[in-house]
Amino acid sequence: MSHYPILGVSTIMEGGNHTDARYLTDLFSRHADKKITCISGHIHLQDAAVYNNVHYYCNGALSGFWWEDGNKESAGKCYYRETPPGYAILDLYEDGRVNNQYIPHAF
């Protein structure tokens, strides 16, 4: 668990990923026998990536109301880009599977 994303797709648009991402992804690769899931925030966008069998999730932000009307007219009230304010529920299983579900906040 990390505030800044270690690896993600939307970090290309938003920045804010770990400066030591190469070190961490190499470390995770050396422990491929472990089931690793990384969760983060910071960029307030819903994002999921899989690299070398490691799952990386960023799950928006519940504090979306500070965006007021949002920054994209077509997306909706309080959205940041196309991500609505919300939260995630992660189900972690003994066999290493993970289910990440993003729950948009109901207005």
Report the biggest beta sheet as strand number plus sense, adding barrel if it closes: 3 strands, mixed
Q: What is the terminal separation in angstroms?
A: 28 Å
Report low-confidence residues grouped into runs of 5 or more.
none
In terms of DSSP E residues, the strand content is 25-35%
- Number of E-state strands: 5
Q: Which shape, going by the Cα principal axes?
A: globular
Summarize the amount of helix as a percent range: 10-25%
Strand order of the largest sheet: 1-3-2
Radius of gyration: 15 Å
Organism: Paraflavisolibacter caeni
InterPro entries: Metallo-depent_PP-like
Protein name: Metallophosphoesterase
Structure description:
With 107 residues, the protein is an alpha+beta fold. It is built from 2 helices and 5 strands, in the order ααβββββ. The mean pLDDT is 85. The relative contact order is 0.18. Helices cover 13% and strands 28% of the residues. The chain has helices at residues 11-14, 21-30; strands at residues 37-40, 46-51, 54-59, 86-92, 98-104. A 3-stranded mixed beta sheet has the order 1-3-2, covered by helices on one side. The protein has a two-stranded antiparallel ribbon with strand order 4-5. The chain has one domain. It comes from Paraflavisolibacter caeni. This is Metallophosphoesterase. InterPro entries: Metallo-depent_PP-like.
